[in-house]
Design brief:
Elements: E1 4-8, E2 11-12, E3 18-22, E4 25-29, E5 37-46, E6 49-59, H1 85-101, E7 109-110, E8 114-115, E9 123-131, E10 134-138, H2 158-174, E11 179-188, E12 191-198, H3 204-216, E13 221-226, E14 229-235, E15 240-243, E16 246-249, H4 260-274, E17 279-283, H5 291-295, E18 299-304, H6 307-320, E19 330-334, E20 352-355, H7 363-371, E21 376-381, H8 384-396, E22 400-408, E23 417-423
Parallel strand pairs: 4-6, 7-22, 8-22, 12-13, 17-18, 17-20, 18-19, 20-21
Antiparallel strand pairs: 1-5, 2-3, 3-4, 5-6, 9-10, 9-11, 11-12, 13-14, 15-16, 21-23, 22-23
Helix pairs in contact: 1-8, 2-3, 7-8
This protein binds S-adenosylmethionine.
S-adenosylmethionine (SAM) binds near residues 285, 309, 338 and 356.
């Protein structure tokens, strides 16, 4: 029998769990809020803490509200729909402040956070399972491989949500019972890009069904990936993104900022922070979210590790004049910036650097930047902890962190983006 205890929740942790205390140990309680008195059953004791499941809320917080989605609580996609807006917005701000203070940044200006609107998420990877009673499709439950069969998702874009019933029907016809797949859906500027990742080899009939599905629903492109081989099943038009008026081809399932509104806000801050600098480097540039807006006014070096992404950027750059867009020079480099960061010497002559690494951050590259003569660094990050860790490297190298913009791109989740502006 699991142990059942009563706890008072003192605070919200970085993953969105309520945290209380029992016999000197922290107790982590998903879906509980500060000030609440709750009954929980202990599920696990690890790393000096007690992990638990909420049994009942005996004294609810005044900051609690009805979640926006019926799957909230079981679906692992969102952690914070039960907070009222004021409390949630304050938590986002505090989360940025806490990560910064853990690395010695106490008095940094944290700007008013920007929040993704509902239905603005234009990229999602859904898990699929075909069982005896058909296909289920959705996100995993928290800390579990169980899939929550989605019938609504208030954060995902309408174009993605509207395709789900038909997608499930076609996958139901194709997938054998007891099989799994992952479906990556991206709402590009000119339609949906879908990539199905499965270990099933496509037969002729399945291919025809998918092609018909793509035609009926005006899907821009549909790939089937098996054992790493990407099969272009239906390419009805090349999916593209529009960055500062430049049409950039989107490789299947590649990275884009998940909300167009958050992307615009981040681009605005990045461009503003680079004003007045002539030569700019955009590191971890992807397909050019920041590169093209920057290249309207600055000579640019764009560096990226994914070959398909940098090739898209190059194609778009080469076609931009014909599209009537005037850009300054863009030089590209395909390079692994973890293993071979741009050295301080290579950065000589660059006045500003924009850096937007994956969640792991960019310790090696920041170490080189800290030794460089670059005057302005704009650090864009999807992980406040690695952002703050890397910011410390820059600060120890003589940079001052002027301001930080929190961008809540994954609404109601514990993910948070930060844009930090540093000056030497
Ligand atoms: C957070 S995304 C940012 C992309 C782009 N700045 C944007 O906003 O669309 C991080 C990028 O880093 C790239 N990347 C990951 N590991 C890398 C590495 N070791 N070296 C260079 N680029 C890498 C990914 O391919 C991805 O494009």
């Amino acid at each position: 029998m699991p142990e059942t205890i009563n706890v008072t929740i003192d605070k919200l942790g970085a993953q969105g769990d309520g945290i209380g205390e029992h016999e000197g140990l922290p107790v982590y309680v998903p879906l509980a809020l500060p000030g609440e008195r709750v009954t929980v059953s202990i599920t696990e004791k690890k790393r000096g803490g007690l992990y638990s499941q909420l049994v009942s809320i005996d004294q609810p917080s005044a900051s609690r509200r009805e979640p926006a989605c019926k799957h909230f609580g079981s679906c692992g996609g969102c952690q914070l729909q039960h907070l009222n807006t004021d409390y949630y917005q304050q938590w986002i701000r505090d989360r940025a402040g806490l990560a910064l203070s853990q690395h010695g940044f106490e008095d940094v200006t944290i700007l008013k956070p920007f929040f993704a609107p509902v239905t603005s998420r234009r990229r999602a990877a859904f898990k699929v399972h075909k069982g005896g009673s058909g296909v289920i499709l959705g996100f995993n439950a928290k800390n579990s491989h169980q899939i929550i069969n989605l019938s609504e998702c208030p954060v995902s874009s309408n174009s993605i949500m509207q395709i789900i019933p038909a997608l499930k029907r076609v996958l139901d016809k194709i997938l054998p019972t007891r099989s799994v797949a992952t479906v990556h859906c991206t709402a590009a500027s000119n339609g949906l890009d879908i990539l199905v990742d499965s270990n099933l080899k496509l037969g002729l009939e399945a291919r025809e069904l998918l092609a018909e599905f793509a035609d009926t629903h005006d899907i821009a492109s549909l790939h089937w990936q098996q054992d790493g081989f990407m099969d272009p099943v239906a390419i009805r038009r090349e999916p593209v993104m529009d960055f500062a008026g430049v049409k950039v081809p989107l490789p299947p399932a590649s990275f884009i900022q998940v909300s167009a509104e958050c992307e615009s806000e981040m681009v605005k801050h990045v461009v503003e922070a680079c004003k007045g600098y002539r030569r700019v480097a955009d590191l971890f540039c992807g397909i050019g979210t920041f590169s093209f807006p920057l290249a309207r006014d600055h000579q640019l070096l764009a560096v990226e590790g994914a070959q398909a992404a940098i090739q898209s950027l190059e194609l778009a750059r080469n076609a931009s004049a014909a599209q009537g867009v005037r850009l300054k020079q863009i030089v590209t480099k395909h390079r692994d910036l973890f293993r071979r960061p741009l050295t301080a010497g290579e950065l000589t002559g660059f006045e500003a650097v924009v850096i937007d690494p994956p969640r792991a951050g960019a310790q090696a590259q920041m170490t080189e930047l800290a030794k460089s003569t670059v005057e302005r660094v704009v650090s864009v990050s999807c992980n406040p902890n690695t952002f703050a860790r890397d910011a410390r490297i820059l600060a120890d190298g003589g940079y001052i962190l002027d301001r930080v913009l929190p961008v809540d791109q994954f609404l109601w989740s514990s993910h948070l983006e930060l844009v930090g502006v540093f000056t030497r």
